[in-house]
C-alpha cells in the first residue's frame, strides 16, 4: 500500500524552501550534505516544489550552511556525550536524524505549533527526542527543560527574524539556566539585512529581517556569560567557494570579494561558549 501524501495549508508552504534545497543536494551526483531524510520528506509532501522561489544557488548554500552547523554539533556532542540540545526555530530541518545523537543526549526541536504538527506527520519518534510547539521567545517552554547538563543552542537561520530585545532576553534565560554550553547561529550584518529584504521584495516574497550583527563581541556585553569562540565568514568558506565558483573567472571574483571586509562580514557563522564562573 502506497504511503499517504502529506498535504499542506497555504500558510505552511513558507517552511519548504530550506527543506527543498537539501533535498536537491541529496539527489546531486556529489552531494554536500547528503540529507536523505530531507529527500524522503519532500517525496512525502503533496506540493509542487518546482514552483518554490528558491534563492539562486540555494541547493548549494543551504546544504553547506547546515553541514557547518552539523560539524559544530558533532564536536560538541563528542566532548559532552551527556548533554542537552536546543534546536531553536528548527523548521523542517532533520538535524537530529543526521547527527543521530547518543542515548544520554536530550534533544529538543522548538518551533511554532503548526511547524511541529507538520514535523509529527513527516518524521518518526526517537528516544531522547522531544518536540515543543511554541514561539522561541515565549518564556514558558524553557521551564519544562531540565537545566542539569551542558547545553548546545542551535539557532540556524533564526535570529535575524527575532527582535534584538526578545533575542537577548531568550539567550540570557538559557545561559542562566544551564551550567555551561555553546551557542551557534548565523548572523547577518545590517547591510545584509537590507540586501536580503530588497531581493525578497523583487521576488515577491515577504521577508522581515530585524536583528543584524555587525560586531559579534557586542553580544558578549549584552549576555555577560557568553564568550566568542569562533567567527567564520560564511561567504568565503572554502567549501562554499569551491561549489559556487564554476570557472576561473568566477573563482577570481570570489577571491577579490573575499578580501573586502564588508563582504566577509555580510554573513557570519558565530559560535559562543559559556561556563560557570
TrEMBL record:
GO terms for molecular function: methyltransferase activity. Keywords: Methyltransferase, Transferase. One of its GO terms (biological process) is methylation. The keyword Methyltransferase applies. Pfam families: LCM (PF04072). Transmembrane segments: none annotated. It comes from the Bacteria. This is Methyltransferase. It comes from Cystobacter ferrugineus.
Amino acid at each position: 500500500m502506497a504511503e499517504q501524501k502529506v498535504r499542506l495549508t497555504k500558510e505552511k508552504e513558507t517552511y519548504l524552501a530550506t527543506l527543498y534545497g537539501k533535498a536537491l543536494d541529496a539527489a546531486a551526483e556529489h552531494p554536500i550534505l547528503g540529507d536523505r531524510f530531507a529527500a524522503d520528506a519532500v517525496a512525502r509532501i503533496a506540493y509542487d516544489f518546482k514552483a518554490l522561489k528558491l534563492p539562486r544557488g540555494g541547493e548549494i548554500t543551504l546544504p553547506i550552511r547546515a553541514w557547518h552547523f552539523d560539524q559544530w554539533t558533532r564536536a560538541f556532542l563528542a566532548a559532552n556525550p551527556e548533554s542537552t540540545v536546543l534546536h531553536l526555530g528548527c523548521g523542517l530541518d532533520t538535524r537530529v536524524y543526521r547527527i543521530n545523537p547518543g542515548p544520554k543526549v536530550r534533544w529538543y526541536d522548538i518551533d511554532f505549533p503548526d511547524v511541529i504538527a507538520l514535523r509529527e506527520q513527516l518524521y518518526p519518534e526517537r528516544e531522547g527526542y522531544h518536540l515543543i510547539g511554541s514561539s522561541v521567545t515565549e518564556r514558558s517552554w524553557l521551564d519544562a527543560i531540565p537545566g542539569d547538563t551542558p547545553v548546545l543552542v542551535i539557532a540556524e537561520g533564526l535570529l535575524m527574524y527575532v527582535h534584538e530585545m526578545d533575542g537577548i532576553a531568550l539567550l540570557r534565560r538559557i545561559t542562566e539556566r544551564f551550567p555551561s554550553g555553546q551557542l551557534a547561529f548565523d548572523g547577518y550584518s545590517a547591510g545584509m539585512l537590507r540586501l536580503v529584504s530588497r531581493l525578497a521584495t523583487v521576488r515577491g516574497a515577504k521577508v522581515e529581517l530585524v536583528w543584524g550583527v555587525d560586531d559579534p563581541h557586542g553580544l558578549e556585553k549584552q549576555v555577560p556569560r557568553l564568550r566568542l569562540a569562533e567567527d567564520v565568514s560564511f561567504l568565503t568558506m572554502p567549501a562554499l567557494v569551491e561549489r559556487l565558483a564554476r570557472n576561473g573567472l568566477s573563482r577570481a571574483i570570489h577571491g577579490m570579494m573575499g578580501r573586502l571586509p564588508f563582504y566577509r562580514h555580510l554573513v557570519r557563522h558565530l559560535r559562543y561558549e559559556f561556563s560557570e564562573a
